[in-house]
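The protein record reproduced below.
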Amino acid sequence: LPDEQQLTIVLYFYGDYALAEVADVLHRTESRACQIKQTALATLRKLLRGKIDR
């Protein structure tokens, strides 16, 4: 994942940051932080699906 997506996932899921807090760290709007999180999750799902199907 790109750095911004990695940071979003780490802060949100491991750091227990609220989405508004993630947005502040990234200097983005909350809406954009949500988009970044969703894109990262979609990418991770694709990657994991490929590994599980093998």
Notes: The mean pLDDT is 95. The longest helix spans residues 30-53.
